[in-house]
Amino acid sequence: MPHPPVLRGLDEVAQKLRAAGHEVVEVAPYDHQRAWDIAYPLYYATGGKEMKELLAATGEPWPAAAAKLSANPSLRELSARELYRYHAAQDDYRKGYLQHWLKTAELTSTGRPIDGLLCPINPCASYPHDFLTWWGYAALWSLIDYPSVQIPAGFVDKNKDVRDESYQPVNDLDRENYELYDPELWHNAPISVQLVGRQFEDERLLAVSAVVDQIVHPK
C-alpha cells in the first residue's frame, strides 16, 4: 500500500487533470501478483551466482538489501526448461495486459483506450539506507516492455499526510513498508507519480507526459 503522500500525489494530479478538462477514469489492476511471480525469477535467472562469485573473490560483505534479497529460498538458477516456461508466461501476460488496456475503451467517453496510466512508482517517498523497498510498481512494466516516465507531484506534508492508523497490512512486506512511514522525518521530501504508456509508443507517452507536466507545473 502506498504511503499517504504518494496517494495524495496521485489524487491531486488526477484532480488537476480533470480541472483542466481531461477525462480521468479508474482502471483496475490486472493480476499484478501473477506479473511479480513471473518477473522475479527472470530478474535473477542465474540465482545471483555472478554476484556471489564477485563478493567471494573480493571478500566484501553483501550489501544489506541485497543480502536480504539473496536469502529468499526461491532465488536459484533456472534450468533451460524453466526459463522457457517463464518466457512463455511473460508473452502470455503481455498479451493479456494489452487486452486489458484496450478494454479501457469501455470506460472512456470517446470510446478509445486510455492515453496513459497514472500510478505510483514506489510505495514510499523515501526510505533509509539498506532498506529493501518494494519495486513491483516498476517491475511490472519492465516485464511487458511498457515505457514509463516519472513526474514530480509535490512534497510530503506532515500536516496533510498523517499515518493511517486504521490500515491493516496484508502481509509482512506490506507491514514493514507501513511501519517505515514517519511524516515528521519525511516532511518536505519530494514525491512523484508514474505515467505509463503502451509498448512501442514511447514518443506518444512523452507527448502525453508533457501535457500532464504542464498542467501539474504550469509555467
From TrEMBL:
The lineage of its organism: Eukaryota, Fungi, Dikarya, Ascomycota, Pezizomycotina. PANTHER family: AMIDASE-RELATED-RELATED. Belongs to the amidase family. The keyword Hydrolase applies. The keyword Hydrolase applies. This is Amidase domain-containing protein. Keywords: Hydrolase. Residues 2-206 form the Amidase domain. InterPro entries: Amidase_dom (IPR023631), AS_sf (IPR036928).
